[in-house]
Design goal:
- It is a single chain.
- This protein has 80 residues and is mainly β.
- The chain is built from no helices and two strands.
């Protein structure tokens, strides 16, 4: 049950740890752009890419990305 006053639209619900898995991505020219949604957790993800070429050469790279929630500022005047 949600806490009293909790907004259903802003309450995080998805805490998936593996947000993208492409075990067999074939690249025509050796480059790709991949889009995926992140989980609702404000955290960092380790991205690991492992690859091989048709002639058996191997490659690997690891990087980190950060997931952040959108934030905003709403000015308020002091009330007298």
């Amino acid at each position: 049950a949600a806490a009293p006053g909790a907004d259903k639209e802003t309450t995080p619900r998805d805490f998936t740890e593996t947000v993208c898995w492409l075990p067999a991505l074939v690249l025509a020219n050796g480059e790709a752009e991949i889009a995926f949604d992140l989980a609702d957790a404000v955290t960092r993800y380790q991205v690991t890419i492992v690859s091989h070429s048709l002639d058996g050469r191997l490659g690997a790279n690891t990087m980190e990305i950060a997931a952040r929630l959108p934030s905003g500022v709403e000015p308020k005047s002091p009330q007298e």
